[in-house]
């Protein structure tokens, strides 16, 4: 299937995510220190390092994308504390259920992203504008849908989603948090970029980068 993304891409995405999360660990810690518990970067770095160990221990390559995402989900849920573990774990688990396929076309990539967002909304009870990771995921999904409708390749769909997620993360800076730990700060939460939205942008950028490499 020309232009599709298979299990090898999902593994590459996961490995790139782990690398990027570790590289940005201090940045995520500092962002979370400003408006949260200060553990977002540490928790994600620990979680994805554990995911890498699980991947390295596999006897055979996963057969489909969903198998990779389920491994990520279960590992994050069991190793990541705070809000990030349940939220990202649910996102990956929902995404795994719609990607039990050997390869993803553009519509399947959109389904992956939509399922991830749905999982986060259901688990976190958050809506756009509340200064959470939903503020990066929502524009990412909207951009993915538009790109797929315009005939973009799977890699193109992810590139559009990643760019929108970056913009969504940056747009959380002036917002006043009304959900999660940051909401305790009230007006003082304004002026700080949300760490969850920031890590979302990093994760989706890793997806887009590895998809572009796979398509090259």
UniProtKB/TrEMBL annotation:
Domain DhaL residues, every copy: 8-209
The entry's keywords: Kinase, Transferase
Matches recorded under Pfam families: Dak2
Domain of life assignment: Bacteria
Molecular functions (GO terms): glycerone kinase activity
GO biological process assignments: glycerol catabolic process
InterPro entries: DhaK_L_YcgS (IPR012737), DhaL_dom (IPR004007), DhaL_dom_sf (IPR036117), Dihydroxyacetone_Kinase (IPR050861)
Gene3D superfamilies: 1.25.40.340
The keyword Nucleotide-binding appears for this protein: no
GO cellular component terms, semicolon-separated: cytosol
Official protein name in the record: Dihydroxyacetone kinase subunit L
Gene: dhaL
């Amino acid at each position: 299937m020309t232009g599709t993304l298979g299990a090898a891409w999902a593994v590459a995405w996961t490995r790139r995510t782990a690398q990027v999360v570790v590289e940005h660990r201090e940045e995520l810690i500092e962002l979370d220190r400003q408006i949260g518990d200060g553990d977002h970067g540490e928790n994600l770095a620990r979680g994805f390092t554990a995911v890498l160990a699980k991947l390295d221990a596999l006897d055979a390559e996963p057969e489909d994308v969903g198998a990779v995402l389920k491994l990520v989900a279960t590992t994050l849920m069991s190793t990541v504390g705070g809000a990030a573990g349940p939220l990202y774990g649910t996102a990956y688990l929902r995404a795994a259920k719609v990607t039990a396929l050997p390869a993803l076309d553009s519509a399947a990539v959109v389904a992956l992203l939509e399922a991830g967002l749905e999982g986060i909304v259901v688990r976190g009870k958050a809506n756009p504008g509340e200064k959470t990771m939903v503020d990066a995921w929502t524009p990412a999904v909207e951009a993915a849908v538009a790109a797929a409708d315009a005939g973009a390749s799977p890699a193109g769909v992810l590139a559009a989603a990643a760019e929108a997620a970056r913009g969504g993360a940056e747009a959380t800076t002036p917002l006043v948090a009304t959900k999660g730990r940051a909401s305790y700060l009230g007006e003082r939460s304004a002026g700080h970029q949300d760490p969850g939205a920031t890590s979302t942008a990093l994760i989706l950028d890793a997806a887009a980068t590895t998809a572009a490499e796979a398509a090259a």
